[in-house]
Amino acid sequence: MGLTGTERRWIDSVVRQDEIDRYLRDGRDFVDEGLIWDELERNGDPADSRIREIMAKSLELERLDPSETAALLGCRDPGLWEEMYSAGLRIKQKVYGRRIVFFAPLYISNFCVNNCAYCGFRRENNAVTRKSLSDEEIRAEVRALTARGHKRLIMVYGEHPSSGADFIAHTLKVVYGTKHGGDEIRRANINAAPLCIDDLRKLSEVGIGTFQVFQETYHPATYGKVHPPDTLKGNMRWRLYALHRAMEAGVDDVGIGALFGLFDPRFEVMALLLHTIDLEERFGGVGPHTISFPRLEPAVNTPFVENPDHLVDDGDFKKLVTVLRLSVPYTGMILTAREPEKVRRDVIPVGITQLDAGSNIGVGCYATGEKRDEKAQFQLSDNRSLEQVISYLVEQGMITSFCTAGYRCGRTGHYFMDVAKSGKVHTLCMPNAILTFAEYLDDYASDETREKGWELIREELSRLPGEDLRERVAHLLERVEEGERDLYL
Ligand code: SAM
Ligand code: SF4
User: Fold this and answer.
1) Is the pLDDT at 250 greater than 90, yes or no?
2) pTM for the full model?
3) Nearest-CA residue for atom 2 of ligand 2
4) Is it the case that residue 79 has pLDDT exceeding 90?
């Protein structure tokens, strides 16, 4: 179906060229293709000693330079890769401790004006049922999710005049306003199309957590191939600076990402680093709050994903996640249920900080319980429930966190980066993780998970630094057991 007049007029009004140009340097954007290929070539076969020096720098929680990241990508020695995996784990422990934050994706609308070759929601895909949730349907989805223990969402939208900033802001208010006892969403992140600065201010005022926009691919020629140039998303630079605009609008937690499978994964990893560096340079050292690295998944009636040019196998996937962990040691890293259980088990230890579980990405499908491909953007592979994944993590000695204190207390942007970079997360985030995990165990978990979860909490409590802190947290835990909720440091 062609575009309507209203859609066409709306598309023409979205891009503000001055909100691209202000970030360019001498007319050039930060994706320096020449530099990326040069670094990859020059660092193609690094000496063992160089790799170890670079690992040492990462372990000091310093961000790597492009030539260092290129050297890690060029490493061919399986023994050294094993060393890098364990360095990833140590960095994660140092910055984030033994805790994983959980969220749930909530698809609000799948109307879209674009035609991204890989996406089930692309405009020309007639096999998808289109839907935008009403307020009552959003409340039903939120109730279904919070009844299982979720406190954090990533809300997802197609790009369409019916899903503009006012609609997003309205749906956020509906989500935050849906409460039933302790069942409530305390932090809603957004994954939506690039917006202009004024629109981003509107979202900032309602109180969003992280604003995510994935670049999909940073390689201009490939970007042009999978995003038709006559579509809104075909404007690569509008998307490239979406998060610069968000930072300027006061949304100071932003999430970058690339969709792996579209182009050479080494190029995308290098470009994610350049994106990070550009944000840090322009916003006083504050880079992305999270990095995402989804791989292409099958989607209904979407032949492109059946045979992509740059499929990333499981081994290479683990390597690229590890290189990202070492390259940007203090940034959160998100691994979604797109990945199968086995891959998630294997990759979590190299430095993942956020997971989803029990996810249903069909629009309106949490409340109905349907698993319908024609309502979803793509297919998920890890279909374990939230409790199953949490229980698995407890066995691995990891605390599940539903903590949302950071953003509600203004611990975002500069503040968060200072805390993360100095490794102080243990005195703040770990106690809060413990408190939210205790809430989850008491309110939502089975007897078996509750028992082993509390055992882990007691162990972690004894590991907290300082008698004072341990006493304070023990006291708060008693209050949680007595029924008080939403306690945090
Ligand atoms: N429409 C908005 C946009 O394009 O930015 C929202 C994003 S979309 C609903 C969320 C993300 O899903 C996309 O940015 C893309 O990286 C990813 N995605 C799209 N199709 C996919 C597929 N077939 N497999 C895996 N991830 C996919
Ligand atoms: Fe639309 Fe986003 Fe899908 Fe592209 S990836 S077709 S913009 S929903």
Assistant:
1) yes
2) 0.96
3) 158
4) yes
Q: List pocket residues of ligand 2, CB cut-off 6 Å.
A: 112, 114, 116, 119, 121-122, 158-159, 233
Mean pLDDT, rounded, for 265-293: 97
378 lines ligand 1 (CB under 6 A): yes
Task: Report pLDDT digits (tens) over 427-436.
Answer: 888 899 999 9
Report CA(372)–ligand 2 centroid distance (Å): 18
- The verdict on the CB of residue 377 being under 6 Å from ligand 1 is yes
| Whether residue 158 has its Cβ less than 6 Å from ligand 1 | yes
| Predicted confidence (pLDDT) at residue 415 exceeds the cutoff of 90 | no
Q: Ligand 2 mean position to 310 CA, how many Å?
A: 20
Q: Could you tell me the distance, in angstroms and rounded to a whole number, from the CA of residue 118 to the centre of ligand 2?
A: 9
Q: What ligand has the least distance to the C-alpha of 300?
A: 1
Q: Are 127 and 299 in contact (CB under 8 A)?
A: no
pLDDT at 252 over 90: no
Average pLDDT, the chain: 93
Q: What is the pLDDT of residues 98-150, one digit of tens each?
A: 999 999 999 999 999 999 999 999 999 999 999 999 999 999 999 999 999 99
**393, 457 Cβ separation under 8 angstroms:** no
Is the separation of the CB atoms in 255 and 209 below 8 Å?
A: no
Cα 158 to ligand 2 centre (Å) = 6
